[in-house]
Amino acid sequence: MSSVIVVRNVDRNIYRRVKSIATLKGYTMGEALTEAMKLWLLLNEINSKEYLEYLLQREKSEKKLKEVQEKYGSRFKGKYVVICDGELIKICGDEEEAYRIVSKIKATQCIIAQLGRITEEEKRLELGMGIFE
Q: pTM of the predicted model, to two decimals?
């Protein structure tokens, strides 16, 4: 399939290096660029799937945290809860214990939160692709 495609804003040095190596290996520029684009798609699709999975698990964990706060918040006030991938793992006596639990779990996403606080004031640490709060 032969067609002409114009690509703008390509770094000249990279283009020259690719062209040199492609020529040495017996590839046309079209073949080399096609392989490069396949690799780029593969890498970006994998990352996108992982990030989407993380977002789904985070949403489940946030929902579970609200449920746990409502159910156990006043009873275990001041204790720390560990929620990973939308599942309640354990209610811990202190923050250090919660960290130890999370360090042993292979999960996409985890939340450590202190129980019995209003959600806005809650001290929370999200592990995974998340942000420390």
A: 0.57
